[in-house]
Design goal:
Length: 230
């Protein structure tokens, strides 16, 4: 499988390109609109056909590339239920498969950061690869204070869903602001300060004590992303 982790530096956003070497079909997770030309060039260089673009959730910090990529390449835009954006061509829910060629991503509904947050699991070979969006970050978790976020739901998503996967599972987050590129579930269980809580109410307290500023591009990003960035 072709696998590329791509960084958009201004918002520290990671996008993930997965390509099937036989069928040459590709899926792009969490694209950023301003990187579209670079993605298309890379797809051409790797002789890949972009079949699917999908976001882990409706982003508040950057404009998604899904709409423009669909326009430019004809790829299908997938969005998880409750899918709210116009221009989406396919919706999915918990446990659904998102497939291109031999690549099969299982959608895991993980509300909490937002009420439309999903993680995607590639579990064909071990260790599994888990794309966690902003649900589980490296040594952190996504904020839960807007977009119908809920720290209670996020606790359940992380502890009752993600952490039931094998501990060797590799974690690829939606962002990292410290230059970390990947982790494992074992590492996060042990060293992620947000996961060192005794129970859900302790997690809720921890999350409500955070003093967070508004994302810089929120007022542009959310309205644009409700139209797939178009
Ligand atoms: Fe987010």
């Amino acid at each position: 499988m072709i696998f590329r982790q791509l960084l958009e530096v201004e918002t520290c956003t990671y996008s993930y390109l997965l390509g099937d070497e036989v069928s040459k079909e590709a899926i792009l997770i969490d694209s950023v609109k301003k990187m579209t030309d670079q993605y298309i060039q890379l797809l051409n260089e790797l002789d890949l056909t972009l079949k699917i673009v999908v976001d882990t959730h409706l982003h508040a910090d950057h404009i998604t590339g899904t709409g423009l990529l669909s326009k430019e390449t004809g790829c299908t835009i997938y969005q998880g239920i409750p899918a709210r954006s116009s221009g989406v061509s396919k919706t999915f829910q918990d446990n659904d498969l998102i497939s291109a060629g031999e690549i099969n991503l299982s959608a895991i509904y993980t509300p909490g950061h937002t009420d439309d947050s999903y993680c995607f699991l590639l579990n064909k070979v071990t260790p599994y690869l888990l794309f966690t969006g902003d649900t589980l970050l490296i040594r952190g978790t996504g904020r839960t204070d807007f977009q119908n976020g809920s720290s209670r739901q996020q606790y359940n998503s992380i502890f009752k869903k993600l952490l039931t996967l094998p501990e060797s599972t590799k974690v690829f987050p939606g962002h990292d602001y410290n230059g970390m590129t990947m982790s494992t579930l074992k590492e996060e269980r042990l060293f992620n300060p947000r996961l060192q809580v005794a129970d859900c109410s302790e997690y809720e307290e921890l999350m409500s004590s955070l003093k967070l500023t508004r994302p810089r591009f929120m007022d542009q990003a959310i309205p644009a992303n409700l139209h797939c960035g178009q």
